[in-house]
Amino acid sequence: MSAAAPPRWRSLLFVPAHVERFVSRAHARGADGVILDLEDAVPAEEKARARASLAASVASVTQSGGAALVRVNAGLIEMAADLQAAVIAGVAGIVLPKVEEPGVVRLVAEAVAGLEEARGIAPGAVRLVLQIESPGALFHIREIAAAHPRVAAMTLGPEDFCASLGAVPGPDSLLGPNLAVLAAARAAGVMPLGFAGSIGVYEDLDAYGAMIAQARRMGFRGAMAIHPAQVAVLNAGFSPDAAEVDWARRVVAGDAAARSEGRGAFRLDGKMVDPPVVRRAEEILALAGETFGAR
Q1: pTM
Q2: How many domains does the structure of the chain reveal?
Q3: In this structure, are 252 and 163 located in the same domain?
Q4: Together in a domain, 126 and 221
């Protein structure tokens, strides 16, 4: 399969797949996608029931137009059962936790392709979202990100990563690893998700919003959430505001005018604009859902 364009997921809300009252409300939370979690949030004795309810859960969480994703378990036996239950019509992605090396990404991608074919699902419909959760994985990060065209996004799992590192989750321990994930994702053409902080922060939404604003300045384009209160902050923080969109429109228009005159750079608002600045403006317009002429 050929590489598809990365999706636009500003906010992906985790919901434990076995708790019906959470699943039934998830579609109304405003998230771009809901992750039905079969992994850490589900006790061992509840996993079979959570798998059995996935078809109904997917229908529920997608009723307002958001995407449905499923996080599977990392263990081989449980992952196989999870994939059998999760690769169904309506599922946009499989969240693959604790990725250590590229080989497992390719094996999961092949398994998903086989299930798509067997079930009449369009090839490539079910994408992969990779979670990097150990220091060892950072040594293979570039190869992991580029392991398969089915990979849509990649993120650092901050709590598990810091537990493996023996560190406290926060900017001091997470900035460097997040930058590594960001660079590898961008190099591979997949969507970078994340921010340099704990995913468990939701009581102080001002502080949380500041972390998200920093993440967008760094180059991240969305993040995962564990509480509905985080969703609105993510949606706002990973969306360009009116001033940014206006600037981007003027940059793209100025670039078109300059190129028509045979110039590769031009001045705008007292600053020189060249191709890297134009690319940033084009990405802002893409984030805002606007189209523009090809360069």
Answers
A1: 0.92
A2: 2
A3: no
A4: yes
Q: Do 169 and 248 fall within a single domain?
A: no
pLDDT for 157 beyond 80: yes
Residue 3 has pLDDT above 80, yes or no: no
What whole-number distance in Å separates Cα of residue 127 and Cα of residue 154? 11
28-74 confidence digits (pLDDT tens)? 999 999 999 999 899 999 999 999 999 999 999 999 999 999 999 99
Q: CATH number of the domain at 186, please.
A: 3.20.20.60
Q: Are 233 and 205 in contact (CB under 8 A)?
A: yes
Per the prediction, the chain carries an average pLDDT of 94
If asked whether residues 274 and 185 sit together in one domain, one would say no
Q: Are 170 and 159 in contact (CB under 8 A)?
A: no
Residue 190: domain span: 11-237
Gap between the Cα atoms of 214 and 120, Å rounded: 42
- Assess if residue 5 is contained within a domain: no
Task: Report in angstroms the alpha-carbon separations of 86 from 18, 72, 214.
Answer: 14, 8, 34
Indicate whether 287 pLDDT > 90: no
